[in-house]
Design goal:
single chain; alpha+beta; 3-stranded antiparallel β-sheet; globular; disordered N terminus
Length: 122
Amino acid sequence: MRNTARAFWIGLSLLAAMGCVEEGLFTECPFDETIEANCVSSETGVALTCIVKEHPQCPEDICLRWESAAQATCTQSCKAATDCPNGSQCTPFQDNASTAGETTTDCALQTCYCVQDADLGL
């Protein structure tokens, strides 16, 4: 009986711990319909790069959809290439649009985010 109770509490503790695991960078974070509608150019119909700076599903609060990406993903701000995990680049943005789509190692004067290589076509 004692072993059964111990096993029960261990199992319950593991389930509770699993429920508290935070999502990581580059996990999907959905935009609502209003944001989705604003992420397409009304002039050309082309998808725009969009950023939500306070998304509740992202550990760093930032949810980004690069113009060519099918889904928005959680990301983080960066100041240098070394701030981003492997497989991503520190990329400059200005007003929810990429300034040039180029990666940079110096983001001291502009806002930059980690963007996955695949989204950049790398």
